[in-house]
Amino acid sequence: MSVHKLTDLRDNSTxxxxxxKILSIWNHPPNSHGEITTxxxxxxxxxxxxxxxxxxxYHNPFCPFLKPGxxxxxxxxxxxxxxxxxxxxxxxxxxxxxxETSVHPLPELVKRxxxxxxxxxxxxxxxxxxxxxxxxxxxxxxxxxxxxxxxFVCRQxxxxxxxxxxxFELLDNMGKKMKCYAVxxxxxxxxxxxxxxxxxxxxxxxxxxxxxxxxxxxEIEGENVLKSEFGCSRIYLNPTNFPEIDIQSYIRSRxx
Length: 256
What we know:
CATH superfamily of the largest domain: Nucleic acid-binding proteins
Helix content: 10-25%
Protein name: Replication protein-related
Domain Replication protein A 70 kDa DNA-binding subunit B/D first OB fold: 3-104
Pfam family, one: DUF223
InterPro entries: NA-bd_OB-fold, RFA1B/D_OB_1st
Organism: Arabidopsis thaliana
CATH architecture of the largest domain: Beta Barrel
Structural class: mainly beta
Strand content: 25-35%
């Protein structure tokens, strides 16, 4: 079976076949009418692309196969030029599922998590395109704020849940800092998991390392920061599920 690379894709056909890893997926399944499932996909050639699944019926049911970290084979889909201003990857095209689209699970093709780490100098002096796409960062958690709220006007049946945030800094192993804002769901996850870390019987004031995935550069109060994005963003404290990351080696390499 012939498989295309992401760089082969053009918007003049739907007869495509690709093998990709799901890095992030949200609105899956959709919670309400009109919501669209969105994914960030990555191939084994270090290319990343956005994909959407409009609500509707499909020729081949594939929902059970769509999970973060899973390698999948996708065939017969539409390739479109992105129209939305909100994007997650820099790839020039966007994948859109259609009625004929098929998805099949694959064994792990490459044992990688495809991090796209940003560093303090990149956050301080970002390129123009860096503002448009999400990125990853890593560091020791310091300077945690109290939970606060952005100014937010609720529409009918809405709450101000997504306006809640906590800020903190990530200190890298060179002693440089990045300011981060965990908003809404990420705020809740950060506070809950950080509390678990420091209340553990094994905790003895050792550094706590955070990895933030799929966060976006934003300007808050005149400062460039990393801010969590609704849906795609993730945060991990002292993670052990990434083979590429050795937390203890990272801590030992720090310059104090």
